[in-house]
Amino acid sequence: QCYEIENEISKGMYESLIANDDPDFIVSSFEKTRIEMPYNNHLFEIDLFLNTKLGELMIIEVEFKEGEEIIIPDKLKNLPGFREVTNDPQYFNCNLV
User: Fold this and answer.
1) 50: three-class secondary structure by DSSP
2) Residue 93 CB: number of other CB atoms within 10 A?
3) What is the C-alpha to C-alpha distance for residues 31 and 44, in angstroms, rounded to an integer?
4) Within a 10 A sphere around the Cβ of 11, how many other Cβ atoms?
5) How confident is the model at residue 2 (pLDDT cuts 50, 70, 90)?
6) pTM
7) How far apart are CA 46 and CA 52, in angstroms?
């Protein structure tokens, strides 16, 4: 199980965290590009990862309310390798590094 906090930080803060020499303080990172695609009253966030332990990876995220039905656009679900990974811990951000 992972505990994850997402915060935008400055380059200086990032460099400070990476330089931390406490052996119990581990910082892992990967490069991600996010593309936002509005569709059918929802915002699809398409994350492109370049250097995960799984290699190059694209994850599409959309948030919705319980019981709400989401229609995934054909241009997304017809991408090669498309599959549902919502509850697959292998694809949690903390497991990609």
Assistant:
1) strand
2) 16
3) 19
4) 7
5) low
6) 0.65
7) 16
How far is it, in rounded angstroms, from Cα 46 to Cα 48?
7
**Residue position matching structure tokens 């697959």:** 88
**For the chain, counts of helices (H) and of strands (E):** 2, 3
Tokens read off for 86 = 């919502």
pLDDT tens sequence across 4-37: 677 888 999 888 887 877 777 766 667 889 999 9
Handedness of CA 58, 77, 44, 5 (dihedral sign): negative
- CA 26/CA 70 separation, integer angstroms: 37
Token digits for 23?
A: 């052996």
Amino acid identity at 5: I
Tell me the three state secondary structure of residue 6: coil
- Tokens 């332990």, located at residue: 53
Whose tokens are 């017809």? That residue is 78
Looking up tokens 């995220």 gives 61
Separation of alpha carbons 62 and 46, rounded Å: 9
Residue reference for tokens 């569709």? 39
